[in-house]
Amino acid sequence: MKIKRRKKAHAAVEAAALSDIMFFLLVFFLMLSTLASPDAIKVLLPQAKTGAAIPRQVVNLTVDKDSKIYIGKDEVNFDALKAQLETTTQGLENPTIVLKMDRTLEVQKLISIIDVTNQLKLPVVVASDKK
């Protein structure tokens, strides 16, 4: 009496479906990373040929095309700008203001904001796009 041996089943993983899943995950995370941008306020920055590294303790000061002023993501009135900057930078050791202004705004608005930061003796870096 001859006993037949059963063929052993080989475990196989189909890779075609995994590559599709990985592609969709990649697209999802790329889209998610653009939505979670710290620079959520859209501003057209002026262009410059040179650039410099920014210190770590940064306070973002943004002025959009409608002349609305933001410290971080909080909107601030120009009259309350000095007091708000004072309270924001109070706990920081070496604060630096990164000024992001829309390039369509007039120069007087830039000078007015720099005057406020000079009164507080805070260093200012004007942000720009690379040319």
Describe what you observe in this structure.
- With 131 residues, this protein is of the alpha/beta class.
- The chain has three helices and seven strands, in the order H-E-E-E-E-H-E-H-E-E.
- It has helices at residues 15-35, 81-89, 107-119, and strands at 47-48, 58-63, 69-71, 74-76, 96-101, 124-126, 129-130.
- The strands form two sheets. It has a five-stranded mixed β-sheet, with helices on one face.
- The chain is elongated, with a radius of gyration of 27 Å.
- The protein starts with 14 loop residues before the first helix and ends with a strand.
- The mean pLDDT is 83.
Question: What's this, in brief?
Answer:
The chain has helices at 15-35, 81-89, 107-119; strands spanning 47-48, 58-63, 69-71, 74-76, 96-101, 124-126, 129-130.
**Distance linking N and C termini:** 86 Å
Residues in helices, as a percent range? 25-40%
Multimeric state? single chain
Q: Using DSSP, what is the number of strands?
A: 7
Find the structural class using helix and strand composition. Answer: alpha/beta
Main sheet record? 5 strands, mixed
Principal-axis shape = elongated
The strands making up the biggest β-sheet line up spatially as: 4-3-2-5-6
H/E order of the elements? HEEEEHEHEE
Contiguous runs where pLDDT drops below 50 for at least 5 residues: none
**Portion in beta strands:** 15-25%
Query: Which radius of gyration do the C-alpha atoms yield?
Result: 27 Å
What is the number of helices? 3
Kindly state the mean pLDDT as a whole number?
A: 83
